[in-house]
Design goal:
Layout (H helix, E strand, L loop, with lengths): L1 H17 L1 H21 L7 E7 L4 H11 L4 E6 L5 H7 L5 E5 L3 H7 L3 E8 L3 H26 L6 E8 L6 H23 L1 H8 L2 H5 L5 H29 L9 H25 L3 H17 L12 H6 L4 H14 L8 H26 L1
Parallel strand pairs: 1-2, 1-3, 4-5
Antiparallel strand pairs: 3-4
Helix pairs in contact: 1-10, 2-7, 7-10, 7-11, 7-12, 7-14, 10-11, 11-12, 11-14, 11-15, 14-15
């Protein structure tokens, strides 16, 4: 059985490599898209959850906090009582921003020495952090202007000390490029698997395959393995380019990354084989693949934050394997997250993979019958 599956796998890979169009589709477009997206992609921000650590508790500090909480761009979610709470809130992504007002804030304002205000930002999404920082600067600038008008001072009374966690320089590529690794891996894997059975039917070789000693389950496994092998190779190349070309830090464990990659590929292969089993021609397989790819990318959190989506759509994203792989990629690259923290992302992908592969096997057998 194993020898027959290996032979079919080799046959599938060779048929892909012999076709010039297939070779071009697998290699060139993903690399071009990686470079284009890596240099050109940007994001927008709709809402900023923030926490306040007010050590001064004066009228001036309350006025400043009121300006943040009253802004349509900010939502006050936490009030902190001690320094140790800050790290936990940022680590859990409970807040994007922590506003820290020191104990001498109001006294320094009154003496004209310049009061310090600290803004701690979650830098995992650098574009979001930069937009949030601009909002903070705008509020502080207006606070300064109002204070100067009220007191008759001449120098700005408040200064910002900024610290972005996980991405100190707020490099947008650090956030975008790992996401592109998941996007392009999904595209290539889906195309390879979604066209596999359809290509056999269109070329007239599918009936020949059925009269071989191969059982339906062996044919299905032989069709899945090339997608897994090509997906792993493609993802490895993209990860190497991300680290050595774009200089995105890979802080976490490769084992944690590749466990997530394997589970993600299995779920993508399952969807691709489902589409291929239902398709009679390669054109149908291609259209089916893109019918899945577009919503999968949109609902993954790659281009639009999931938290900004309607609640019904947020629930729908739970069926999308790419949603979980995005968390794994950015967690391993930027947060140095160990595999134990990724279990909550692993098991949904494993469940989706099991369900889609089972459905693909049923559809495959049903179409044969």
């Amino acid at each position: 059985m194993l020898n027959r599956i290996i032979a079919l796998t080799i046959k599938e890979i060779l048929s892909l490599l012999k076709d010039k169009k297939s070779r071009f589709t697998i290699v060139i477009p993903p690399l071009v898209q990686l470079l284009v997206f890596g240099y050109a992609a940007t994001y927008d921000l709709n809402d900023v959850p923030f926490a306040v650590y007010d050590e001064d508790r004066s009228a001036a500090s309350r006025d400043l906090i009121a300006r943040f909480s009253g802004s349509p761009n900010f939502t006050l979610t936490e009030r902190i009582d001690h320094q140790g709470e800050i790290a936990d809130l940022v680590d859990r992504k409970a807040v994007l921003l922590v506003v820290h007002i020191g104990p001498d804030f109001s006294r320094n304002l009154l003496t004209g020495g310049g009061a310090q205000l600290q803004a701690i930002l979650d830098g995992r999404n650098s574009n979001t952090a930069m937009i949030a920082l601009n909002y903070v600067r705008d509020i502080v600038t207006r606070f300064n202007e109002d204070w100067l008008a009220k007191t008759g001072g001449r120098t700005p009374p408040a200064r910002l000390n900024i610290r972005a966690w996980y991405n100190a320089n707020l490099e947008s590529r650090w956030y975008i490029v790992p996401g592109i690794a998941g996007l392009l891996t999904l595209v290539v894997t889906m195309l390879v698997t979604a066209l596999s059975v359809a290509r056999e039917r269109e070329q007239g070789t599918f009936d020949q395959l059925l009269v071989t000693p191969l059982r339906p389950v062996e044919i299905l496994v032989g069709k899945a393995l090339p997608g897994l092998i090509i997906g792993l190779a493609e993802a490895t190349i993209i990860i190497l380019i991300a680290v050595f070309w774009f200089e995105v830090p890979l802080r976490g464990s490769l084992a944690a990354l590749y466990i997530g990659l394997f589970l993600f590929l299995m779920s993508a292969i399952g969807v691709g084989l489902m589409i291929s089993s239902l398709s009679v021609t390669q054109q149908q397989g291609l259209l089916g693949a893109f019918l899945f790819l577009v919503p999968a990318v949109i609902l993954s959190g790659f281009t639009t934050p999931i938290a900004n989506m309607p609640l019904v759509v947020q629930k729908l994203t739970l069926l999308n394997p790419m949603r979980y792989f995005m968390v794994v990629l950015r967690g391993v690259f930027l947060e140095k997250a160990p595999w134990s923290l990724m279990v909550s992302q692993y098991w949904p992908m494993a469940l989706i993979g099991l369900a889609t592969l089972t459905a693909a096997a049923w559809l495959f057998r049903h179409r044969i019958d």
